[in-house]
Every structure is written in C-alpha cells, then in structure tokens.
Write a structure and sequence with these properties.
The complex is a heterodimer of chains A (about 425) and B (about 350). Chain A is an alpha/beta fold and about 425 residues long. Chain A has 13 helices and twelve strands. Chain B is an alpha/beta fold and about 350 residues long. The chains are: A alpha/beta (about 425), B alpha/beta (about 350). At the A-B interface, helix 9, helix 10, helix 12 and helix 13 of A face helix 9, helix 10, helix 11 and helix 12 of B.
Chain lengths: ~425, ~350
C-alpha cells in the first residue's frame, strides 16, 4: 500500500468507455440526442488494489461501475477483466459487431414471420395435415421458434467471421455474448448502495447468499449449506440468522448480507457502488473495516464508488475524480488529497466540511458558483469550464485530453499540459 | 465568523427565544408505546445557532416536530413538557394561535427540497402565500417582497424566476427557495431539518455560506439538525448530541470537538475519517446497533455499545449534569476527566 505507482498485474483495463442513453422525442419517438452519462473514460485497476471513484450525484460514477461489469451495454468501450475482453477490443470490431447484430436480428425476425406464415398456410390448406391436430401445430411452432433463435446466432457469427476476416481482426475482439458473459460473472461481482432494495424481501438470508451458488455451480445441498455458513462467518453474521428475512435486519447487517452474496463465488473483482451511503455514521466504519479485512484475506480488487471523500481517502489506494461523465483527475490517494492538480478536485476537496471547528475558521474555501450542466447538453470545450474558477479562453474551445503529468498522476486540464 | 465559545459568552445575558423543558413524545403503536423523545430540554438564545447531531432514530427530528406541534396526533402524543416562546407555552396555546406562529415566527426548512415544495404551484405563489396569510400584504407588496427574498438567497434573475415551477430549479436552487420561504415573515427562530443532506458537497458549501451570510444580516436564532459532524463544526455555536431519544451531551462547538465527554460523542468523532489529518489503517468502530426505541429506558441507552459501562449504567438512566467548562453538560456516569488525566 505504498504511495507510489502500484506495480503488479492489471486486473481491469478500461479504455474509452462511453455510455450514452438515447433521448427519444416526438410522436415518432425519434432519436434526437443522448444523455452522455459516461463519455470517454480510461482507467486501470491493479490486482489487489482499491480504486476509488468519486464525484457528485449525476457525474456518471455509478453508470461507469455498472458498464464495467456490462450490466449496461456500453455505447463503446474496451473492457478487459483478467485478460478477457468484455466489450470490443477496437473500434473496427465494435462497428462490425453493431452492424452484425442489426442484420442478425432482422434475419431472425424474417425467419419468424416466414415460418409462422408457412405453418399457418400448411395447417389451413393441406387437408392431410388438418386431421392430425393441435399436437403437431405446437411442435411446428416450437420448430419455428428454434429456427428463429438459431438463425440469429448463425447469422451473427457468419457476418462477424466474414467481416472480421475481411478487416483482418480476430473474432476474440468482439463483445461477449450473454452466455459467454454469464460464464465470467462469478469472477466479477457487485455490492449495491441500498441493501433494502437489493435483497429480495421474500427470500431468506440463506437463499439470498446461496442463489449465486445454485445458479453458477453444481454444489450438493450439504456443500452449499457449508459454504453459506462459511460466508456468513466471513462477513460477521450469526449463523443462527440463516433462515431470517432481510426486514429482520438493520441496515448494516443487510449490507453484510449483500457482501456475502457478492463473495459467494470467490470473485476477483468487486464493484462497490456507494456501499455505505445508506448507513448511519456509526455503522459505516463497521462495513468499511469488513471490506478491508476481506480484501486482505481474499486478495480482492475493488472499484469503490462513493461521494464520501474522507471515506475514499481511508479505503482507496488510488482515486479517480469524475465530473460530468469524464475523469478529471486520477492519482495515488495521498498525492491527490495533499496536492490536487485539477481545479475541480481542489474545489471538491475544499467543499467537504471537516469535523473540526478550528480548521473551519482558518481554511480557505473554493466555493463553486452555479450547478453541474446537464449531461444531455454538456458545454463545448472542457466540461468544467462553466464553473471553473481559473477558466481560460482555450477551455471553452478545446476539450483537454487526459495526460500523465507526473508518474501515476493523470489530469485532464489545460493548466497542466 | 463567530467563535463558538466567545459568541456563547457574549450571548449569556441575552434572553432565551426558545426554552424547551422536559419534552416527552410517545408514539402509540399496536406493539405498545414507543418513547421517541425522552425528557429533552434545551434553549436557544437570540442569534444563536444550535446544532443537533444524532443518527437516524435518535429523536432529533421528532423533537423539533413536537415543539412546533407538527406531529400527527394520534399516534403521537406529547406526554409532558413546556416550550416557552414569546411569553407563551407552545404546548398550551390553541391550534389557531399555533398556526399564526408556524411559518411566521418560527420558520422551517426540511431535508428534501423536492418533496417540500408543491409541484403544481409556481415558486412565486408559494413564496407569497405566507406573506399574504401572515403579514396581511396585498398582492403587489407580497410580490415585491418575494423578489427581494429570492435575491437575498442568491437566486439570479429573481423577478422572472417567480413564475417558474419547482421542477425548473436544480436541487441547490430549490433549497434556496425553501430557505427564502422560511425567511419570508422574518422569523425569530428557524428550524432547519437536515437542509443540506440531499445536496452535493459543492452545493452544500454554497448553502452553508449563504446561511452564515444571512445570520449576519438577519440575526435570527437557528436550530440546525444534521448527522454530519463536519457541517456542525462549520456553522454551529453550540451543539446538542442526541442518542436513543435523549440528549447525551451539550456544549459550545469548540469545547465539544476539543473535549467530548460522553463516550458516544467521543467514539462518533473517532469513527469519521479525516480528509486532511493523519490517515489510520483501520477505522475506529462503535460496535453494535443503535437502540430500538420502545419502552421508556430505565438504563443508559448507550450502555450496550459503551466500552466504559459499569453496573450503575444498567440500573439508572443518567441525567445531564455539568462537566468541565461552563455550558458543557453530559449524561454519563463515567468520569471522562479522570480517564484523560
């Protein structure tokens, strides 16, 4: 946990992650714009480290976390987790993939409509078939469905292979399909913000923690129970609570259930999306300590998303600061907090009220004017130029690129060319 | 910025604008009584900002709602207590008189600016409503005053924005509108219940700055409820810490942060990681859960989680008593001073 650039293996590599949510307006629901929730984000996470992702509400940090696990289908991205490409290794692959998916879905629609028509005509017009009855019709319908689904994948793969060969890229560069993704899910898990909403109120604790086990493994019932108890021990839940329901627990304990569920399949990488935001102050420390203990014990890698800067300073090894869909600054924790480079980072840090009345009277504050612009209509140039206290002319024209200004320190600002 | 201790001293002979004594609020539920506020007493001097800190369920909001009689009764019932305000006892006056005070001489700002503004009326209407009801202004006067108020809370282009609806304002701006409404009738006391909790830190910083400015301009007394010790450290003159429906500690702000006496306050201050100070590898933890409110506690509510608890704590519920410096009171049998020495 030294404050140098961490060496070691990159477990997660995210390049040019974009997640646009389309806006449809008018009678025809035409696509008239996009909410650019995440707009070109790059970062790496090294094995065993915690990357803190901070920013204000609406800056895209949660969307970013979900897109990394492909809980959303990103607009564009290269996401490598443990060496496997989850999205598209390059832009050419993405374009081919998008086109192939479109053609494949049209083909399968065609097969479906055509097949249904054929079966209907046959049933009505061939007298020999009319007597055989309903059973055969059902079988025919099933065949049509199977052909439709198979048609989709056959077309998709055929187009992908042909076009990839033509463009000279490997088929491994394409985004994983749902079933391929599903096989990878055990490696990457998520802990959600609201433990009340992310636990099924009609399932017992044992059923919640055991669900990933029955979905992804072929454990026997005894092995499964043993694993559930082991997980409950790991997160500090009393074994005798196994048959209780989520509402019988307090917020902190519910979050422990959520953590146990995330750990069930021995993941390498966990996205923690504001895991402590819904908890009381005196309970937050318990959950953060638990997450740290588990990391030490199991060698986990975290993406820790939070708006609580002092908690991020405690738990993260490196910190990325997001503003309006982009990373403003990414640096090792100690240097980021002691010597922030980006004007937004400076303002954000100085806005955090410290529990120390003396410091309050002496500290110099940067009070930002105005509000965060809408991600559907971000300003031209640097996206912080509307609120930046040291804005220059170039900032309103040119969007600064993310640069490594010192080893391990990345900043996107014209002040640090 | 007023120094907490000095301001307290200077305000010593200022009369109380609000004096709450032995307030006890009970909710009657099917599973029995829930004692949400237990014997809470506090006072507020003119121009003073009292911070009320506590976790969810500690009774801080219910206390304030009780004293302005905003709780639905039943199920709530105010068992005992008196609230002296303006030579009246707010617990005894008629509902009609209470309505003339609420929103006029005691202003209120709530946590969520989205749900506390009415979405179907424009902001101007909602600002002018108290002015016309309580101050007897005509439409023209009320309108002028409304523009003045929006300018006071720093909303640009105020005259035009009067006809905008709440959804056309951002979260921070909406909270400014709420503050403007609360200030409309020049209240003597402003009760702010977690007014910045739903806001982002940079917007929170703007609102805190605004409140400091307004206090200097208008000089009203404020009760500021929050769970954020950082916010309290920045704006309060005096702090009251609540736990399990009762006040466990009360002190001028600098004194509280420098010499916390109640074990709960001490541990609470330690669990919050710092942004600038030393970084510890492990966070201090308060073991266990906050108490479930229920029957009137006959022992210290913090006993189960307290590292210093001894047999007396299980037998009796400690009363607030003076500790150390003037104005510093704590409800604890344990002698923190002895432990520090």
């Amino acid at each position: 946990m030294l404050d140098a650039t961490p060496r070691g293996r990159k477990l997660v590599e995210v390049r040019n992650l974009r997640m646009y949510f389309p806006i449809h307006t008018g009678l025809l629901r035409r696509h008239t714009g996009d909410v650019k929730a995440v707009d070109g984000v790059n970062f790496d996470i090294y094995e065993g480290e915690t990357l803190g992702l901070v920013g204000e509400s609406g800056c895209g940090k949660s969307t970013c976390g979900r897109a990394v696990l492909r809980l959303y289908d990103p607009t564009s991205a290269s996401i490598k987790i443990d060496g496997v490409e989850l999205a598209w290794a390059n832009d050419a692959a993405r374009k081919i993939d998008v086109a192939a998916r479109r053609i494949a879905s049209r083909t399968s629609w065609g097969l479906f409509v055509g097949g249904t028509a054929l079966v209907t005509i046959a049933a009505l017009n061939v007298p020999a078939l009319a007597g055989i009855g309903v059973g055969l019709l059902i079988i025919a319908a099933a065949i049509v469905l199977a052909v439709t689904i198979a048609g989709y994948f056959v077309t998709l793969n055929a187009i992908r292979t042909r076009r990839a060969a033509a463009a000279g890229i490997s088929t491994k560069d394409f985004a994983l399909t749902e079933s391929e993704l599903r096989r990878l899910r055990p490696k990457m898990q998520m802990v959600f913000q609201d433990p009340q909403a992310s636990l099924n109120p009609r399932m017992t604790v044992a059923a919640i923690i055991g669900e990933p086990l029955s979905e992804h493994t072929k454990m026997s019932a005894t092995a499964r129970n043993a694993r559930i108890y082991e997980l409950m021990d790991n997160v500090g839940l009393n074994r005798s609570f196994a048959n209780r329901y989520p509402h019988e627990f307090s917020g902190g304990q519910r979050q422990r259930i959520g953590i146990a569920r995330a750990l069930a399949l021995n993941p390498k990488f966990i996205v923690c999306d504001e895991p402590i935001a819904a908890l009381d102050v005196s309970i937050q420390a318990q959950v953060v300590n638990l997450l740290e203990d588990l990391q030490d014990k199991l060698g986990l890698t975290y993406l820790f998303i939070s708006h609580d800067l002092s908690m991020v300073r405690h738990i993260a090894d490196r910190v990325a600061v997001m503003y309006l869909g982009k990373i403003a600054e990414l640096a090792p924790r100690d240097t980021l907090f002691s010597d922030p480079l980006h004007p937004y980072t400076k303002a954000l840090l100085s806005a955090v009220p410290e529990p120390d009345p003396v410091r309050h009277d002496t500290a110099e504050r940067v009070i930002l004017q105005g509000d965060v612009p809408s991600p559907a209509n971000p300003p031209k140039g640097c996206n912080f130029c509307t609120r930046c206290p040291v804005v220059m002319d170039i900032c309103r024209v040119d969007d600064p690129a993310m640069k490594e200004v010192r080893p391990g320190r990345f900043v996107a600002c014209h002040l640090h060319p | 910025m007023p120094d907490g201790a000095a301001a307290h001293k200077a305000a010593e002979d200022v009369p109380y604008v609000l004096d709450v004594r032995n307030l006890k609020t009970v909710f009657r539920t099917r599973r029995g009584e829930v004692h949400a506020v237990n014997d809470v007493s506090f006072n507020l001097k003119a121009g003073e900002l009292l911070g009320v800190v506590g976790e969810s369920g500690s009774g801080k909001s219910v206390t304030m709602m009780s004293l302005i009689r905003l709780l639905p009764m039943p199920p709530a019932e105010i068992r005992s207590g008196s609230v002296a305000f303006d030579d009246m006892d707010l617990m005894k006056i008629s509902e009609e008189k209470m309505r003339a005070i609420r929103g006029a001489r005691i202003g209120m700002v709530f946590q969520d600016p989205m749900t506390s503004l009415n979405p179907v009326f424009n902001v101007g209407f909602q600002l002018m409503e108290p002015l016309r009801k309580h101050m007897g202004m005509n439409k023209k006067q009320a309108r002028d005053r409304a523009v003045e108020l929006l300018e006071l809370v720093g909303i640009p282009d105020a005259a035009r924005r009067l006809s905008d609806y709440p959804h056309q304002f951002s979260g921070g701006m909406r909270q400014r509108v709420m503050i403007a409404i609360a200030l409309a009738c020049d209240p003597k006391v402003l009760i702010a219940d977690e007014p910045t909790t739903a806001l982002d830190v940079t917007i929170q910083a703007q609102i805190l700055e605004l409140v400091k400015e307004l206090r200097q301009k208008l000089g009203m007394a404020i009760v500021w409820i929050t769970h954020d010790l950082g916010v309290i450290a920045g704006i309060a003159d005096r702090v009251m810490v609540m736990y399990g429906g009762q006040v466990v500690e009360e002190a001028p702000v600098r004194e509280l942060f420098a010499n916390p006496r109640h074990p709960y306050t001490r541990m609470l201050l330690e669990t919050v990681p710092s942004l600038t100070g030393d970084r510890s590898d492990r966070l201090r933890v308060i073991q266990g859960q906050p108490p479930m409110l229920g029957e009137q506690p006959r022992s210290c509510p913090f006993r189960d989680r307290c590292p210093h608890a001894f047999d007396q704590c299980a037998r009796e519920n400690p009363m607030l008593r003076d500790v150390g410096r003037p104005g510093h009171r704590a409800a604890c049998f344990w002698n923190a001073e002895g432990a520090d020495a």
